[in-house]
Amino acid sequence: MKLLRGLYDWTMDKAAHPHAVWWLAFFCFIESSFFPIPPHPLLGLMCLAEPKKAIRFAIVATIASVLGGIFGYGIGFFLYEAIGAWVIAALGLTETFPVAACYIREQGALAVFFAAGTPVPFKLMTITAGFIEMNIVTFTLAAIAGRALIFMAVGILFQLFGAPIKAVIDKYLGLVTSVFVVLVVGGFIAFTQLAGGEDDGEPSPCDTATSVNGR
Max Cα separation, the chain? Predict the structure, then answer.
């Protein structure tokens, strides 16, 4: 938890930096491929400080995040054995990787869009999409749609309710993190129900995937 608090405080410090927009772009980029702290609080603080630039900030976040997603795709496509597998393991997502691969193969753009616009770890989907060689154009379009949706929503919410939300995050970071984890799990459950559910009620084979059979 101390490491998490340190990363969070360091990230938040950048909101007051003279080059805050560049820091926002940087965090959005790396979060899409390997960084564990989401950039949404930083985006929220910047929107709160300068609400007239909220749309600009959201656009910057979207572009940087999609570029980071393409970088994560490249890791999965070219460097999975050397780097991608280590990143997935470091984030505690090794067991989820086969499930993600299965859903991307089955659902394509829908799976990427869902991950880009929900608490499902986007970095997991970007690396996985590259590993299974998903069509890069389809991946990019789905990432743009999902990331634009979530960042515009965050920008608007923090513009309207920024101060109370920031106070809660500062005081209850551990609880907020736990809730985020619950949302991630819930996101996967919801996705399996919506994307993999069948008329006869049988679960999707992806729910129990434990390995990835080649590309």
Answer: 57
Q: Are 129 and 122 in contact (CB under 8 A)?
A: no
How many residues are present in the chain? 215
- 110 — phi, psi (to 5°)? -60, -40
Which residues, 6 or more positions from 19, have their beta carbon under 8 angstroms from its beta carbon? none
Distance CA 159, CA 163 (A): 9
Burial (CB < 10 A; 0-12, 13-18, 19+), residue 46, is buried
Q: Which of 76, 47, 71, 45 is nearest to 59 (CA)?
A: 47
Q: What share of the chain has pLDDT > 90, as a percent?
A: 35
Query: Can you tell me the distance from the alpha carbon of 12 to that of 39, in angstroms, rounded to the nearest whole number?
Result: 9
* 197 three-class SS: coil
Task: Enumerate residues 6+ apart whose C-beta is below 8 A from 211.
Answer: 98
Measured in degrees and rounded to the nearest 5, phi and psi for residue 159 equal: -65, -40
Per-residue pLDDT tens digits for 136-173: 999 999 999 999 988 888 777 777 776 676 666 666 65
Q: How far apart are CA 192 and CA 180, in angstroms?
A: 18
